[in-house]
Amino acid sequence: MLPVIDVKKFNTLIEISTLINSNYSDGHALLTKIVESATRLCEGEASSLLLVNQEGNELYFEVALGAKGAEVKKYTVKFGEGIAGWVVQHNKSIIVNDLEQDKRHLSSISKKIGYPVKTMLAVPMRVKDACIGVIELLNKKNGRDFTQDDLEWLEIFANQAALAIQNAQSFEKAQNKIELLQDQIKNDQGYHPFIYKSPAVAEKLALIDRIANTDSSVLILGESGVGKELFAEQIHLRSPRRQQPFIRVNCAAIPEGLLESELFGHIKGAFTSAHQSRRGRFEMADGGTIFLDEIGDIPLMLQAKLLRVIQQKTFEKLGSDETIQVDVRILAATNKDIESLVEKGEFRGDLYYRLNVLPLYIPPLRQRLEDIPALAEFFLKKALKKTKKDIEGFSHDAMEFMLSYSWPGNIRELENCIERACVIGQDRRIQRRDLFLDGHAYASESGAGGRDLKAALTAFKAYYIKKVLEENKGNQTETARALAIQRTYLSRLIRELRITNV
Ligand SMILES: Nc1ncnc2c1ncn2[C@@H]1O[C@H](COP(=O)(O)OP(=O)(O)OP(=O)(O)O)[C@@H](O)[C@H]1O
Ligand SMILES: [Mg+2]
Hints:
Blueprint: H1 7-21, H2 27-41, E1 44-52, E2 58-65, H3 69-72, E3 76-78, H4 82-90, E4 94-96, H5 107-113, E5 120-127, E6 130-140, H6 148-189, H7 199-211, E7 218-221, H8 228-237, E8 246-250, H9 256-264, E9 265-266, E10 278-279, H10 281-284, E11 289-293, H11 300-312, E12 314-316, E13 323-325, E14 329-334, H12 338-343, H13 349-355, E15 358-361, H14 371-387, E16 393-394, H15 396-404, H16 410-424, E17 429-430, H17 453-471, H18 476-483, H19 487-496
Parallel strand pairs: 7-14, 7-15, 8-11, 11-14, 16-17
Antiparallel strand pairs: 1-2, 1-6, 2-3, 4-5, 5-6, 9-10, 12-13
The structure holds adenosine-5'-triphosphate and magnesium ion.
């Protein structure tokens, strides 16, 4: 007679192997599902999936189901201890239906959590014949005994679980590799061209040159869109660490629950049973610089750990006792008023003082008008590459307007505005109307935020003279004629307005 195939069990197996093969990314959920199915089909009251730890001498509970599941997870089991310890040591399956009589049974855990166990089924999970963990079912329902048939089914489920773990490990390995490569690519090519003309920015860069050699933390402050990230790049590139990694972390973009592992790494992931652990950003930045962007958004809980890294340059990965030492320079940035966060108790005062050893305030664009023409030209070239349009530059009207506008969104707004104008523009030059800035914040009131008329006119004069000089290939006599001014006056203006590169 042919053996009767249990359709329910068979269908569950198919469902699980489909999940395993579909690159189901949440490994812990997948293991939980496998254990749940095995428990239901073999009619256990409770169950666990234990994995061998990194040191290879203990089992920890990766999944624990049943009335006391959450409590049991606090414990670990040594090799050779209890039924699971016996299974891992002998790499063999076992049925015990008179547990109270069995000397191998480790009654201490079941006593502590108050869960008496009478019958038990435990099988090894194997990868290439080596036991990497154990699945056990406890107390067959209705006081019955576990059978040889149950054991064989559980072995099949254990194979599936081992396969899922193996997949997840390869996936994690590949993922680590990809991240490393991505970081390397970023470090080769990720730096932005840094455009400036204003004395205000030149002063900041001179300051950066002075502080670049130290390892002190720098807190970069300034309105949104002023280029804080680019200044952070400059600090790194002008420092002796320039050949080493520059690792960026946007603290606001990473979900709170993941930030700690992102920064410090973790070992015991869902099933990092032995070898796989993940490096955090601090480890990746070893020897180089870490840039903690939007530091104002870092949860209080993590601030203490961060403080220690700044003070001692040491930390532990999640789930590990091993202390890691790194040599990292820390840069941080925020557009929030961090002092008021400290007052409100949302940001630790001690961390703020530690980060703020060297504060670097980046002035808004309206206070460095000389940068506007240079940045505008740069962004125009960039936009033209994308749009493949044939635009020569800006009309005088458009440039004058850009110099008088207050740019509340700073350089980011300027970049967006030019990209938009490039798409809309139909003339050889970008016109004022293409900028679509009318009705927004004008900067005509003198003095307010440094947006005074004199500064705007000076910046425009410099821009205009440079343009005409370029058109005349640097010939000052021709340029003076075109501008209808004396040649001597022109050279004085060139000197006074610091016009260069013609
Ligand atoms: N000096 C510069 N030269 C060229 N591009 C710049 C410069 N400064 C800023 N940018 C560009 O402006 C945009 C905004 O810069 P960045 O992201 O560094 O601003 P931010 O100060 O960090 O703003 P937020 O506080 O909103 O994060 C980016 O696209 C950046 O490439
Ligand atoms: Mg930023």
